[in-house]
Amino acid sequence: MTTLVGFADRPVRVNAVLDAPLSRWLWLVKWILAIPHYVVLSFLWIGFTVVSVIAFFAILFTGRYPRALFDFNLGVLRWSWRVAYYSYGVLGTDRYPPFSLGEEPDYPTRLDIAYPEHLSRGLVLVKWWLLAIPHYVVIGFLLGGFHLGWWSGGLIAALTVIAAVILAFTAKYPKGLFDLILGLDRWVLRVAAYVALMTDTYPPFRLDMGGTEPAGTEQQP
Q: Which residues pair with residue 219 across a beta bridge?
């Protein structure tokens, strides 16, 4: 079950700890090691899409996101984020991600989304496509719209490759680079939660860097 504790201005919270030491060469084969997760997640994301459609109509008619559906979609996002953190979204740990939809508090990264008791019935019609367009432009650059010479991919992937090369030669992951990559991933996850109808709080155009989520205004239960 997800926690009921939320933050009024930061309903999506991403925290992470950079593991040390990290293997200098394991990152070369993590794409192979993560294949079982990619297979499972391909099916889970089909479920995520179906659940989101059902949630859309539930919000439209009742103003509420059914809790069981919310927990499932949050679980898919958590699972996906842990795999990204292990692999080429961050390379922040060598600990293999668990096959789990749960919170997994012992894993070196966490994603929490405060459950909304009420959601706007009008916003649900426009926020996932119209209102999110400016963010889609940014996310396209972060995930797949960055071009530099022979490189064609997202900025996050490019920075992660740079971190991997530095790790291979120095056995250290640059802390400043880690903080930047986490900030970019945090931006992506905030937008993902918004367009998945899990919050009405518009994602800020702000780069909150570092592994620790900045403090926010606590929301009363």
A: 6
Exposure string over 85-122, b if 16+ CB within 10 A, otherwise e:
bbbbbbbbbbeebeeebebbeebbbbbbbbbbeebeee
Whole-number pLDDT of residue 115: 96
Crossing angle, helix 133-143 and helix 155-170, to 10 degrees? 30
State the number of CA atoms in the 13 A half-sphere of 70 facing the CB.
23
d(CA 163, CA 179): 11
Give the residue-averaged pLDDT of 102-115: 96
Cβ neighbours for 193, distance < 8 A, ≥ 6 positions apart:
11, 12, 77, 113, 199, 203
Compute CA distances 129 → 113, 136, 196, 200, whole Å: 20, 9, 10, 13
pLDDT tens digits for 127-144?
Answer: 999 999 999 999 988 988
Average pLDDT, the chain: 91
pLDDT value for 153: 66
Say which amino acid occupies 64.
R
Q: What is the mean pLDDT of residues 45-51?
A: 98
| Residue boundaries of the structural domains of the chain | 6-212
Question: Which residues have CB under 8 Å from 188's CB, separation 6+?
Answer: 139, 142, 143, 156
